[in-house]
Amino acid sequence: MTFGIVWSEIKLLTREPLTLLMSLLFPIVLMVLLVMSFGNEPDPEMGGIGGTDFYVPVYASATVAVMGLLGIPTHLSGYRNGGVLRRFRASGVPGWTMIPAQTTVMAALVVFGVAAMVAIGFAFYDLSEPDSALGVVVGFALGTLAFAGIGSLLGAVLPTSRAAQGLGLLLFFGLFFIAGGGPPPAILPDSINTFVSFTPMGPLVDAVSDPWHRGDWNVTALVALGGIALVTMALAARRLSSETD
């Protein structure tokens, strides 16, 4: 049954170009503009690495964040508002099954988006290979689960898809550009960097960037993402199940 829901979600996604545009094309375009501007010469303000090596992992993480903060909440809140979850229950499908379905679709988009960015970086902008490819994969995997959980929880509590879009855009742009998507953390005030470290965006970027640049798995970031995934998915599942009772 979950596979059928996943397939339906994929078909619906192809009819919503805004979600695809925001989750795939938007991060790629911004990444290309930045790496064209900064090149890949080592820069002390970027931790001694080049602009390409700094920004490609960060903007690859944006694919995870934008789907979690914008794509999933918009879908789920729209389903709730439109009575879709009640119809699922009437046909014997519990509301919580939307969480693994949405997570699977999100993971597919993340794989596609990240692969496209990395391919562009390698082909045109002299992107360095990750020091720990496995660490990068683990970071993306836990980041995807964490932001899928956040998105599911937002979609389970926000009243309309319009509210979800508004809050999702605010959260994404408000957090991403101070978590490495804009100025490098080295030139930002310590207070901002500390604030970012306590948001989900900070652990996401650290979990991907640290193994890429230094080969070290950021255990603190990975544990934080895993905890976020467990808590938010549990709360979202409870809310979606009660929504259909």
Structural topology:
Elements (H helix, E strand, L loop, with lengths): L1 H12 L3 H22 L12 H31 L2 H7 L7 H27 L8 H25 L3 H16 L13 H8 L3 H13 L5 H25 L2
Overview of this protein structure:
There is one protein chain. The protein is mainly alpha-helical. The protein has one domain. The protein has helices at residues 2-13, 17-38, 51-81, 84-90, 98-124, 133-157, 161-176, 190-197, 201-213, 219-243. It is elongated and about 60 Å long. The mean pLDDT is 86.
SSE order: HHHHHHHHHH
Structural domain count: 1
Overall shape: elongated
The fraction of residues assigned to DSSP E strands is: under 5%
Low-confidence stretches: none
Number of alpha- plus pi-helical segments: 10
Mean pLDDT: 86
Q: Percentage of helical residues?
A: over 70%
What characterizes the major β-sheet?
none
N- to C-terminal distance: 19 Å
In total, how many beta strands? 0
Taking all Cα atoms into account, the compactness measure Rg is 18 Å
Structural class: mainly alpha
Provide a concise account of the structure shown:
The protein is mainly α. The protein has helices at residues 2-13, 17-38, 51-81, 84-90, 98-124, 133-157, 161-176, 190-197, 201-213, 219-243.
Essential attributes:
245 residues; mainly alpha; 76% helix
